[in-house]
Amino acid sequence: MTGLFCFVILLVCFALVKSSSRYPNSKGYALFRPQALFALLLFSLFVGLRYNPDVDKDFMAYWEAAEGSLIYYKYDRFELLPRLLADFVHYFHLPPSVWFILMGAILMAFTLFAACRIDNKYMPIVFVGLLLMYLQFDMNVMRQGIAISVFLCAATYMADRNWKMFLLFMAIAFGFHRSSIIWVLLYPMTFLDYSGKYKKIIFFVVCLSALAVITVPLILDRMSFVLSILGKQSKNDIISYVNELEIEQGSGIGVIIQCVRWLFLLYYIPKIFRMESDNRLLILLSIFVIGTVMNLFVRYNMLLARMSLFPMIIELLLYPYVIDYGRKNAKSGWVIKAMTIMQVVFLSYCLYRYLNEWNFVPIG
Fold first, then answer.
1. Reported pTM
2. Which residue, among 86, 95, 104, has the nearest Cα to 41 in the 3D structure?
């Protein structure tokens, strides 16, 4: 019954987000509509009042930090912004759930803001995509989950070639999780000539991705300041840390579905670009390709697999383009509709199984 209750709450959130998306496009201001704000409040209470030490592996570390019982040296390794939120909770003697509520609100606010930066009508699709594909990760690794959502906003400014806003949002992402700093290096992609043949761009991006994956261990070995940013003293600390982590699953029906989803996007987005000639679309797609290529290389390493989620989350902004294309193109519409239904059904089943294990903080 817990899973059903959770689904009802999320459906109400979806209805509110959909209602707020009907207003004319306003580059982010739809987020401040009453419906969107109420959805934000409901979602943050929903994820903030959970108590899942047996479901989300990092949950107790966050709970102890918010409670004030985490030993100092571990608490000090939290990034600035999550630590400030925890200090706020401690100062006013608030329950630990308040920290989770605030983090949930921030996560959803940045995600919806990124969606309406592209178009308000994309907000419901991005919201559903976040729930189906990233909610479990975000609830387990909340600091990095928020940093990834902030990166999603930064990517929209990168697509607009607005370097000042891009750096501002990347600084915010760094404030939530240090691992985001490496993705500042994506910005030079905006200087590429996107008027040329698309295949050349994809080839360049794939080669760049492969080179980056191969050279990351070398960089960590040779550059001590990178280790300091990551909070490690030496490469042996990194190796020890990685060995303690669980290995990401790299096989099974879930991975097959995921790869089909990627191929689906990579097939349709270039076709949409040829119709609309929107360079922003190619920049977003190029970022996404970097994430998928990196993920294929590092799938069995949890530390690096998590890093690849930064560019991979761009898929949330690409699906609305494909769905819109399916509505306008009768020939491809049924294929897109069938693929979307298949993905939603499978991912909803996975989400239901996860939510069915949730527990909530007793009230009263």
1. 0.84
2. 104
